[in-house]
Design goal:
heterodimer, A: about 220 residues, mainly alpha, 2 domains, two-stranded antiparallel sheet, 4 strands, B: about 150 residues, alpha+beta, DNA polymerase, domain 1, 6 helices
């Protein structure tokens, strides 16, 4: 027993005991002490679009962009049911905010004024009526004629802008005629004063005309899509 | 007060300018052959002729009739109208008869503008006149018959 006690008390044994304790402490503490940085989810190569720098537009490019933006604003009116319903793909005018086919098998007719007992003015009076669910009115209620149907339905902004610049599509001599049309044509004005029960165009007539004027004045640029 | 010309006669009627022509004809003039069906230009029962066009009198204001030539079912008597009426009799078209004034007025305009209409033409010209009794087949036959008279 004394010999065993002597053995523990020897210097080499003490050294070994110290080393063992130190190792134990290191084993316990190493997960906590993290001296190495952790790299996670860092791509091998930085993405090219990580930094976007807005390229400055030239004056000409700026003007063109403003022209496109003006057309996109006016496009909302062209494609609204109050306008588009009389500019459908086929020969049947459209009705309502859901632009369903006109009831009673109404069709355009050669002159855009309907056919036989279903001519537009047989039901549509000179003004809106003071009664719910009656036909809206205008002294010249009609569609575009068959030889110049001026289809809006289904056209993208780009397609519609290109059409408006084509005099064969519009029947206008030039784009100034288009300004006169949107500004003064009574059927266009009627679109901005619908009867109760149907949605209104989401801008005033003046805003719409100003948008068309701006589009044309800044070069009648054609939107990209 | 307003002056209107109906079936060749002048009438001075006491009604406001926005009174539907249908009611002026029925209640002021006393011509009840033109019928009320919907009041919204959907059914065609109220069809009359205004300057030769098949106008829906239930939505037409009196003001629009001033200075125009108005013809109702009681007074439509040109050659084509007579053929239509004769064909209607021969084909025994009406069932309840309520819509038939409007049907005859519409068919007369169709045959004036298209003396020999196809079935598609008849569809285009007559689809605005509704018949709850379903006399459409007899109407079609009568129009074809009238076109051949």
């Amino acid at each position: 027993m004394k010999e065993i006690k002597k053995g523990f008390q020897s210097k080499s044994v003490k050294l070994i005991m110290v080393l063992l304790c130190f190792s134990f402490v290191v084993a316990i503490a190493s997960p906590i002490i993290n001296t190495e940085p952790v790299y996670q989810n860092i791509p091998a190569k930085m993405p090219e679009k990580a930094i976007i720098v807005q390229k400055a537009l030239t004056a000409e490019e700026q003007r063109e962009q403003e022209s496109k933006d003006a057309f996109l604003k006016a496009y909302k009116v062209f494609m609204h049911p109050r306008c588009m319903n009389c500019h459908p793909k086929g020969d049947v005018p459209l009705q309502g905010d859901d632009s369903h086919a006109h009831l009673q098998n109404v069709v355009r007719g050669k002159d855009g004024k309907g056919m036989y007992a279903m001519k537009c003015k047989n039901c549509h009076q000179d003004a809106n009526l003071d009664a719910p669910e009656t036909p809206p009115g205008n002294p010249h209620w009609q569609m575009p004629p068959a030889d110049k149907p001026m289809v809006f339905q289904g056209k993208t902004p780009r397609e519609l802008a290109l059409h408006f610049k084509d005099n064969k599509f519009t029947g206008f001599k030039d784009l100034n005629d288009m300004i006169k049309h949107v500004d003064e044509e009574s059927l266009v004005l009627s679109g901005f004063a619908p009867p109760p029960g149907v949605s209104k165009i989401p801008m005033s007539h003046k805003e719409f005309v100003d948008a068309v004027k701006e589009w044309i004045a800044k070069g009648a640029a054609v939107p990209d899509k | 007060m307003a002056n209107i010309k109906v079936n060749g006669k002048e009438y001075n009627v006491d009604a406001t300018p926005d009174t539907p022509l249908l009611w002026v004809l029925r209640e002021n003039v006393g011509l009840t052959g033109t019928k009320f069906g919907c009041g919204g230009a959907f059914c065609g029962a109220c069809t009359i002729h205004m300057d030769g066009e098949a106008v829906r009198s239930c939505v037409t204001p009196l003001s629009r009739a001033i200075g125009k030539t108005i013809v109702t079912i009681e007074g439509v008597e040109d050659d084509i109208a007579k053929k239509v009426q004769q064909a209607w009799i021969e084909e025994d078209v009406p069932q309840c008869g309520y819509c038939q004034s409007g049907q005859i007025m519409a068919a007369t305009v169709l045959l004036r503008e298209n003396p020999n209409p196809s079935d598609d033409d008849i569809n285009l010209g007559m689809s605005g006149n509704i018949c709850r009794c379903g006399t459409y087949d007899r109407i079609r036959k009568a129009i074809h018959k009238a076109s051949k008279m």
